[in-house]
Amino acid sequence: MGKKARKKVLLALGGNALLRANEKGTDLEQLGHIRETCKYFLKLLEKGYDLAITHGNGPQVGAILLQNEMAKAKLPSMPLDLCGAKSQGFIGYMLARELFNALKQAGCKKEAVCLVTQVLVDPKDRAFQNPAKPIGPFYSELEAKKLEVEKGWQLVLQTGKGFRRVVPSPEPIGIVEAKTIKELFLKGRIVIACGGGGIPVVQKADGSLVGVEAVIDKDHTAAFLAQEIGADLLVILTDVEQVAINFGKNNQQNLNRLSVEEAEKYLLSGEFGKGSMGPKVEAARHFVLKGGSAMITSLEKCLEALEGKTGTLIYK
To answer: In the annotation, is 84 catalytic?
Structure first.
């Protein structure tokens, strides 16, 4: 008899795997969370899962943008695609390094590799005509007006906080490094890729790539990446154990299973928040419709969810 095939899983890490609310975001804080996260990765590897990993970068990009703002009198500010690349690089490095250490200590010969990843978007995507993703620091009304003139930014008022820049959030239509990621994954490497939804690029008529000022939803990119590399299962990790309807209310109901039809109904009714659970359910639904399986749960309960004991399974 041949060896039993290992199940191929793409893990989409939520922000809480790297940074907690009310933390300063120091390197030591983030490394501490990543070391803890790696312990859960090892448990999955021991159970026979092959892993690819993607992650969020919202707080980290926010910090880079704030650094840009504070240093603008002495240093040139970098465009958003370069800020995304910077965050993707240092988060990926921390994950790869701590995975190396954890794997070595466990006597596991698997290798982890981080790829700074470019994700293609359509320049005609409607999101470019309707920027809606808030990023960066808050500004006064006077500062906002000045930035609109000087940089062509769009800023919106968030009541009680000030004005904040909004950028497009287009859909992913391709992953430039997809072939390489898949080759490494199928050879048993733990590939860390598409961090923060990927660095958004568009392809010009001559085939060349150029970065754009946008943010791609990380969960949507995770579903796209899972499909591209042939993952059997997409696991979207967040800060709750299960998806719930009537969340936070007296009649909250946690869901063990959620069909793609039910998911669509709840999404259309606004049951899941656009900035929280909505994109996760939408991404999971999309991957399942393409023939895969998807699970939404917390990092701490991931193994139990894969064993069918908890989590929310999205099914066709």
So the answer is: no
